[in-house]
Amino acid sequence: GEDVEQSLFLSVREGDSSVINCTYTDSSSTYLYWYKQEPGAGLQLLTYIFSNMDMKQDQRLTVLLNKKDKHLSLRIADTQTGDSAIYFCAVSYGGATNKLIFGTGTLLAVQP
Amino acid sequence: KAGVTQTPRYLIKTRGQQVTLSCSPISGHRSVSWYQQTPGQGLQFLFEYFSETQRNKGNFPGRFSGRQFSNSRSEMNVSTLELGDSALYLCASSLTGGETQYFGPGTRLLVL
Predict the structure, then answer these.
(1) pLDDT digits (tens, 9 = 90+) for B28-61
(2) Do B103 and A42 touch (CB under 8 A)?
(3) Distance CA B68, CA B10 (A)
(4) Using CB atoms within 10 A as the burial measure, which of A35, B73, B77, B79 is most buried?
(5) In chain A, positions 51-80, which contact chain B (CB-CB < 8 Å)?
(6) Which of A31, A42, A104 sits opposite B104 (nearest CB)?
């Protein structure tokens, strides 16, 4: 079945790089997403990658996809206190459907 | 362009009542999906609507229903509320489905 897992917590110092990891079980994924959720808010789309790509860079964000290991990561360079939030990876399985399978979320705490 | 809007933002109901939540997608988007977020179960897909038709459905009881209007606005209804229905209900829209989804701020429902 479809399952997406993430580590629950990551703590980094301001200015360091953060790496948030995600693993998924179903290899027929098409799009993989990273969303950010701040307290009391909805989900903000950060970036996404197509399943036929290995890497995507978008300013401070770098997404790496290892399809063989079914592993997705999000690297945030020069992490700031404003990056403190919960980060969700989500996987879609193609076709004309919007169904996303979400990971459990990783709480990123940035220490000043 | 305005984002996804959801009303109301907060709602308090008692067990046994019913509730209707509303979602207005981004202008031009025709696909609307609903998700439930709880601390215990995380983010779970409820259903997706496209062109006034339910295209996909998650694993929720029949008390959860929805509909979509000709202007793509969507409503979801929960009947006979239970304490466990307390959650953040998120709506997301995309052009036709399968592309990038954008989420609204959510409706926080508390069932007493």
Answers:
(1) 999 999 999 999 899 999 999 999 999 989 999 9
(2) yes
(3) 21
(4) A35
(5) none
(6) A42
Cβ of A39 under 8 Å from any chain B Cβ?
no
**CB within 8 Å: B58 and A99:** yes
Nearest-CA distance A94 → chain B (Å): 6
| Cα distance from N-terminal residue to C-terminal residue, chain A | 41
Give CB contacts under 8 A, 24+ apart, made by B48-52: B48/A97, B48/A98, B48/A99, B48/B97, B49/B74, B50/A96, B50/B96, B50/B97
SS3 B85: helix
